[in-house]
Amino acid sequence: MRIALFGPPGAGKGTQAQILASEYGLVTISTGNLIREAMREGSELGEEARGYVTSGQLVPGELVRKLADSAVAAAGFNKFILDGYPRTIEQARWLDSFLRAYKAELHGVIFLSVPDEVIIRRLSKRRVHRVTGESYHLDYLPPPRDVAPEDIVQRPDDQPEAIAARLRGYRRETEPLENHYRETGLLREVNGDSSVDVVHSRIMRFLKSSPVTAARKAG
Ligand code: AMP
Questions:
Q1: Is 13 a residue of the active site?
Q2: pLDDT digits (tens, 9 = 90+) for 136-179
Q3: Residue 84 CA to ligand 1 centre (angstroms)
Q4: For residue 214, what pLDDT is reported?
Q5: For residue 166, how far is its CA from the centre of ligand 1 (angstroms)?
Q6: Under CATH, which number does the domain 2-114+175-218 receive?
Q7: Which pLDDT belongs to residue 206?
Q8: Are 97 and 106 contacting, i.e. CB atoms less than 8 angstroms apart?
Q9: What is the pLDDT of residue 31?
Q10: Are strands 126-129 and 152-153 parallel, antiparallel or unpaired?
Q11: Where are the beta strands (DSSP E) in the chain?
Q12: Catalytic residue among 2, 13, 65, 188, which?
């Protein structure tokens, strides 16, 4: 099965991707995580990306493309879920032709839709574990008591100004993907403004419908 999740920042893509990955034995490919990892390692790519990420802007496409292509290849062009890639029409075209060349087209694209006010509420209270990257929410999913408070941090791009910049960027550059994938018949819009479990069951309803089912049976 080869699927992609897209939607605004804070739509719950990472959370849902993680659940689906363990349910179906998929590899999660999150360009956001790959970029943060490169930043932590201090690689050339990470250093190039840093300024964009902390100010809430999209990283130049060519950098992300390299990361995403190698991760897809490492997954063997199958059994993967893309989280946060593609994020522009240009990236979608690259991805479509890359996958086509390996006869590994996507089976479905899940669009998690969530209103802006919910996104702002979610992101401003999101905290992450400095080492594991595990995500928490101060009200709904507080970090466990045995986790050292100094390990729980706020992502720099979850600061109010960066959130606003990310939302603007999303509207301008990522939202057009909705039409791109609607035209190819791959898109399924899922209401992401509910609890994790409810959103997951909505996604499952889509995955149980063809053509994704056929893909699952085929491996
Ligand atoms: P995320 O964890 O998916 O919210 O991504 C965090 C940040 O990484 C984004 O705000 C961008 O700066 C960068 N990023 C992640 N994925 C992409 C992408 N596909 N294209 C460009 N920038 C990206």
A1: yes
A2: 999 888 999 999 999 999 998 899 899 999 999 999 999 999 99
A3: 7
A4: 53
A5: 9
A6: 3.40.50.300
A7: 87
A8: no
A9: 96
A10: antiparallel
A11: 2-6, 27-30, 80-83, 108-113, 126-129, 135-137, 152-153, 187-191
A12: 13
Q: State how far the alpha carbon of 212 is from the alpha carbons of 52, 179, 188, in Å.
A: 35, 20, 11
Residue extents of the structural domains in the chain: 2-114+175-218
Strands (E), 11-160: 27-30, 80-83, 108-113, 126-129, 135-137, 152-153
Give the Cα separation of 100 and 200 in Å (integer): 28
Residue 86: cis peptide before it, omega within 30 degrees of 0: yes
Residues with CB under 6 A from ligand 1: 9, 31-32, 35, 52-53, 56-59, 64, 84-85, 87, 91, 157, 166
Closest to 58 in 3D by CA, of 186, 171, 148: 171
- Rounded average pLDDT per 10-residue block, the chain, 219 residues: 94 94 95 93 94 92 94 97 96 96 95 93 92 88 93 92 91 93 92 95 86 57
Looking at residue 99, its pLDDT comes to 97
Tokens, residue 97: 């032709």
